[in-house]
Design brief:
The structure is a single chain. This protein is of the alpha/beta class and 374 residues long. It has 2 domains: 3-207, Hypothetical protein VC1899 like domain (Restriction endonuclease-like) (Rossmann fold, 3-Layer(aba) Sandwich), CATH 3.40.50.10770; 215-372, 2-Layer Sandwich (YaeB-like fold), CATH 3.30.2310.20. It is 42% helix and 18% strand. It has helices at 12-15, 28-34, 45-64, 67-73, 75-83, 104-119, 138-161, 175-188, 222-230, 256-270, 284-291, 296-315, 321-324, and strands spanning 3-8, 95-99, 125-128, 165-169, 191-195, 203-207, 234-235, 245-248, 251-254, 280-282, 332-333, 341-344, 349-356, 359-367. The relative contact order is 0.08.
C-alpha cells in the first residue's frame, strides 16, 4: 500500500538540545522563544548561531541513537516510527511532506528531520512551507492556513486518484496548527495519527469520518463564491453562513473554512450549467460550444477562468486593460479578424470575444484553432 504522509513540524527537536545546566546556555531558551516567529533574515545573528549549534547537536544525536531515543527527542519522527512499526524502511516507497511554518527555527527543524529520513532510505521527502505561515499574528496564521488548504486541494486528490492512502501525522507541530489540521484532515486524510503521552506511548489512528458537506446550502451563492475564490471582495451578504466568509467594513471574502467548503463543492457547481458572471455576456455560439463540452473538469476550468476574468473587470470597473496585463489570461486582439479579441483558458483552449459598452461578449470557445473562426 502506497501512502502520502503529511507531518506537521514544530521546534522542540531544537529546544530539547539546550543544556540547561550549562550557565553559558541559560538564556538560550528565552532567546529562541523571543525569535520564534522570525524568518532567517530577521533573526539576529547571535540567535542564528545558537540555532545552528542546536541543529548540529540534534543531527548528531539522531544519527547516534537507537529508535527508542529518536522517538523520545522528536515528536515528528515518533509519529512516523509508530506508523511504520519502528521500521522506517517500510516507508521507502511512500511520499512524505513536512509542513513547516515560515520561521527560521521551524524550517531548520524540518531540514534536520528531512536529512535524517533520507539517511534511513526514504527518498521522496519535501518540505512545504505555506507562504507567511507563523503564529506571530492571527492575520499571518490565517493567511498561511489558507495557502495550505489551497496546496492540499491542488495536490492531494491526484495521489488519491492513483491509489495512495493519505495520512496526517499530527504528533509534532504547534498546537494551533494541529487544531486546524485535525479538522482539515477529516476532508483530505484517510487517517490521522497521534501518540498517547507517557511511557510506552502507543499510536492512535483516527479514521476519516464519513463527513458529507451540504453543498446545496451554498448553491444560491455559487457565483459569489466563485468570484471571491478568484479574489474579489464583495458587499456583505447576510444570507451566507458567517463561518464561510470574513466580513470587514461590510465587505466580505472567503474565510478559511469557506475556501475549504468551496474547494469541495465547486466542481459540482462549475461543471454544470453556464453561470452568469458580472460584465460577461454569452453569445449563442459560445453557449453552443459550452454545451458540447463532455468532461466536467474542462467545464470547471473554463468557468474558473470566466470567474477570474469577471473578477478582474469588476476590480477595474470594466477597464479591459487589466486583462491585457494578466500573464495567465494573455488577452489580446486577433489579427485580421475585424477587432475580435481572445483570451487563454489553457495551453490549447481559447475564448474569443468582443467588448461592447463595458461588457465582454464571449463568442466562441475551443481549441486554439477556434481563432480561425472566431
Amino acid at each position: 500500500m502506497l501512502r502520502v504522509v503529511i507531518s506537521t513540524v514544530g521546534t522542540s527537536l531544537l529546544t530539547n538540545q539546550i543544556n540547561r545546566s550549562n550557565p553559558d546556555e541559560k538564556d538560550w531558551y528565552s532567546l529562541l522563544r523571543d525569535a520564534a516567529n522570525l524568518n532567517q533574515k530577521d533573526t539576529p545573528q547571535p540567535v542564528q548561531d545558537i540555532i545552528q549549534q542546536l541543529r548540529q547537536r540534534a543531527s548528531n544525536k539522531l544519527a547516534q541513537s537507537h529508535v527508542k531515543t529518536v522517538r523520545a527527542i522528536s515528536a515528528e519522527l515518533n509519529g512516523l516510527y509508530g506508523l511504520y512499526q519502528n521500521n522506517l524502511k517500510l516507508g521507502k516507497q511512500d511520499v512524505h511532506f513536512l509542513i513547516s511554518t515560515a520561521t527560521y527555527q521551524c524550517k531548520t527543524t524540518a531540514e534536520v528531520i528531512s536529512e535524517f529520513l533520507q539517511k534511513q532510505g526514504l527518498s521522496s521527502i519535501e518540505i512545504h512551507t505555506p507562504a507567511g505561515l507563523s503564529t506571530a499574528s492571527t492575520e499571518d496564521f490565517t493567511s498561511g492556513i489558507d495557502e495550505l488548504i489551497s496546496w492540499l486541494r491542488e495536490n492531494i486528490p491526484a495521489y488519491k486518484d492513483n491509489g495512495f492512502k493519505v495520512y496526517f501525522n499530527l504528533v509534532g507541530g504547534f498546537k494551533s496548527l494541529q487544531g486546524y489540521l485535525n479538522t482539515i484532515g477529516m476532508f483530505y486524510a484517510d487517517e490521522i495519527l497521534y501518540i498517547f503521552e507517557g511511557k510506552n506511548a502507543e499510536l492512535i489512528t483516527i479514521p476519516r469520518l464519513p463527513i458529507a458537506l451540504n453543498c446545496q446550502a451554498i448553491k444560491p451563492h455559487r457565483v459569489e463564491f466563485a468570484l471571491m475564490d478568484a479574489g474579489l471582495t464583495m458587499s456583505a451578504n447576510k444570507q451566507i453562513l458567517e463561518s464561510l466568509v470574513l466580513t470587514i467594513d461590510q465587505e466580505m471574502t472567503l474565510s478559511t473554512w469557506g475556501k475549504l467548503v468551496w474547494g469541495e463543492c465547486k466542481k459540482s457547481f462549475l461543471s454544470q450549467e453556464l453561470l452568469a458572471f458580472p460584465r460577461l455576456a454569452f453569445d449563442d455560439s459560445f453557449r453552443h460550444d459550452y454545451n458540447k463540452i463532455t468532461r466536467p473538469d474542462e467545464k470547471l476550468k473554463l468557468q474558473e477562468t470566466l470567474a477570474k476574468v469577471s473578477c478582474l473587470l469588476e476590480q477595474h470597473y470594466g477597464d479591459i486593460k487589466c486583462l491585457k496585463e494578466d500573464g495567465g489570461i494573455q488577452y489580446g486582439k486577433l489579427k485580421n479578424k475585424g477587432g475580435i479579441e481572445h483570451f487563454r483558458v489553457s495551453q490549447s483552449l481559447r475564448v474569443t470575444c468582443v467588448v461592447k459598452n463595458g461588457v465582454l461578449h464571449l463568442r466562441r470557445y475551443g481549441q486554439h484553432s477556434v481563432n480561425n473562426n472566431p
